[in-house]
Amino acid sequence: MTTIDTPSTDAAAACHGSAHGDGPHGYSGDKEAHLKRLRRIEGQIRGLQRMVDEDVYCIDILTQVSASTKALQSFALALLEEHLRHCVAAAAAAEDGGEELNAKVAEASAAIARLLRT
């Protein structure tokens, strides 16, 4: 079972102003578009379940797995870009942002490393 590293609440608070990471988040402006995209990906995954249930040819299933994986990767990259534009840029603009900026860059680097491992 794979675990996912999540940022500490301190890191979220530095970007979002509270220990719970309450908005606005970098993706908030496009939230509906992101949800629509995730629903489409969810449909792809349900399609994979149907394909297995219906004993579809292995290669056809693998083709759909690849498409679903690419869709998730594309979503992740869009979210990462928004994080860089919102949270990292806010840390860079902050008057005392040196330490916070370094933390945000490290956080983004770790997220990129996790994406590359997948």
TrEMBL record:
Pfam families: Trns_repr_metal. GO terms for cellular component: cytoplasm; protein-DNA complex. It comes from the Bacteria. InterPro entries: Metal_Tscrpt_repr, Metal_Tscrpt_repr_sf. It is found in: Cytoplasm. Gene3D superfamilies: Metal-sensitive repressor, helix protomer. Its main location: cytoplasm. Residues 1-31 are annotated as: Disordered. This is Regulated in copper repressor. It comes from Kitasatospora cheerisanensis KCTC 2395.
